[in-house]
């Protein structure tokens, strides 16, 4: 099921696996996209990011002059993400790589020279400032305003961003703001570099239903941006955002690896939990259920693989990614739900209690699983896209 | 429901629900509850005092035993309202212990104190997928002067400010003064129904009933607890539905109210149907508890509990999904509903096992039919 089995990619995978085992931070991450929980984890993440760039496992797709490897096989990026996920190690900050994609594609030479090296060194972590309270699934309706101060001048930004991963740690933000409220909604958006230390930028960690703080609210009040904060041209923001997001396909493979790990965990815990005096794993209905989930994970892996290969070969369809996302997020939720069912009476115990099975991480995974069926376009939106663009059903 | 005709009952229930909603609106608002949870509190003595003044703890017990109504139907209605507001009040366990004492016909003082709300009781039993059993680690010893209990019960619900424990040890049930028991907090998925670990060291214990009666009394306690928990789950689901519908009516995306998208409106409709059907099953089970226990009582309780407990989880999860991103925040109470629902699902007996129990009872009492050709095994 793995990409590139029996090819040079397999040797590459072995190298990455050894590298991750030797260099990844010691702390094991929770389910989902999470922020560092303390300054120590943040420092670990910076060092880990630097190690990955230095080894060429990140940024290989960058231009040679900025440290990339010309002729780089894009599937290698997928393999790297998969192996990081397999080790349950923290993912390098996606905001930084998204910003790098945008700067490489649309930034000035000066912007690249200023920002790409500190991204490689792990010194500057970036967050993505896209979503807003009233612009979630409908991102193009974002309302944060950037007003041009006049000839040669900078911009003044006002608005609020939401769901900002790593916002509390980030040195820079990759910001989308509306510069032309008269233009059609996709056309009036512009991309900016936001120095998070500027006056008027306030970051509030957001506590999620899990009880942890992985996202932030970012308030922008009369923030004065210099002229060279602009990425690309005014009105080009939507194009830039889509281009930089489209390059970030590596996470799909990593998500599938997490599902495979979840099934392994399920089997581990089904061996430990006893039902009617026998290990749960010896019960027919439990075996059936785990086998069914495992088969669905295999199907998800194939979907994700085909989606990635289709994208890279240019033969993809607009519904490949939505199908993979819908399938993954709903399956991920069902696995966590089944795990809690399997724990039976122990399901009431949460993280922190010594008697909690698997340190209560299933409870955390169960609660966090909601994020995947909502974030990045909810399951309902995915179904709309599949129905309208894939099946040709009327809107 | 002897002594009341149907319209009286409906009126009583309506008055009870209205009174409770007013009380809980004052004492158990979303903000009050959030503060209570986030401060790590485990008891709500003021709320309990108000509930006791209203006669809520004594609803299942007749006036002759110090209770207020003698009606499980009213107790279930009250518990639904408590679930709606996620009230941190230990009524489920209190009702369970009252049921056991009433079935034993002894300990009338304790029963009266529980009904009056001056005592609060929790159940210290072993927990299995099928429900309560004698606590495996609890040892009862008989002395010349009486009994003592030693051992640990890993999870006891609603014991944080209990004054009494009903302990199942060996082949007996005992009533224990909680003051002599070490109750340690346990980290729980649902802070509104706190869990404790009970550690007993040579604690004096008062036997309830004879050894032969223990299974029957524990079953009576469990039936009452399941009906109360199921009623609570209906309240959780009802409020989660209201929250979702309220949001779907006001949240705009893509230039429309999201409730106008059928993906959202159909989900809300399914939630509403699930709530209504669960409430009907719970009402039937509560009525069954008001009569003498028989095989049909067990079926009614198992069906109501399995349906309501699963419904609450599905509906609370649906509530989060309808809210989208904001549903994923700590600030919105949706997660508190999901936590209360999910914890209830595995608190006493697993819904699939309850369904299995009902199925067995239904099939065992069904008239034999000829078996068609072939069997699966």
From TrEMBL, chain A:
Acyl-CoA dehydrogenase/oxidase N-terminal domain residues: 10-122
Cofactor(s) the protein needs: FAD
Domain Acyl-CoA dehydrogenase/oxidase C-terminal: 235-390
Keywords from the UniProt entry: FAD, Flavoprotein, Oxidoreductase
Alphabetized InterPro entries for the sequence: Acyl-CoA_Oxase/DH_mid-dom (IPR006091), Acyl-CoA_Oxase/DH_mid-dom_sf (IPR046373), AcylCo_DH-like_C (IPR036250), AcylCo_DH/oxidase_C (IPR009075), AcylCoA_DH/ox_N (IPR013786), AcylCoA_DH/ox_N_sf (IPR037069), AcylCoA_DH/oxidase_NM_dom_sf (IPR009100), Mycobact_Acyl-CoA_DH (IPR052161)
Top-level division of the source organism's lineage: Bacteria
Homology family: Belongs to the acyl-CoA dehydrogenase family.
Protein name (Swiss-Prot/TrEMBL): Acyl-CoA dehydrogenase family protein
Species this chain originates from: Streptacidiphilus cavernicola
UniProtKB/TrEMBL annotation, chain B:
Keyword flag Flavoprotein: yes
Coiled coil: none
Family to which this protein belongs: Belongs to the acyl-CoA dehydrogenase family.
One Pfam family cited in the UniProt record for this chain: Acyl-CoA_dh_1
The entry's keywords: FAD, Flavoprotein, Oxidoreductase
Name the UniProt record assigns to this protein: Acyl-CoA dehydrogenase family protein
Organism expressing this protein natively: Streptacidiphilus cavernicola
Obligatory cofactor(s): FAD
Residues in Acyl-CoA dehydrogenase/oxidase N-terminal domain copies: 15-106
Lineage top rank: taxon: Bacteria
Chain ranges of the Acyl-CoA dehydrogenase/oxidase C-terminal domain: 228-345
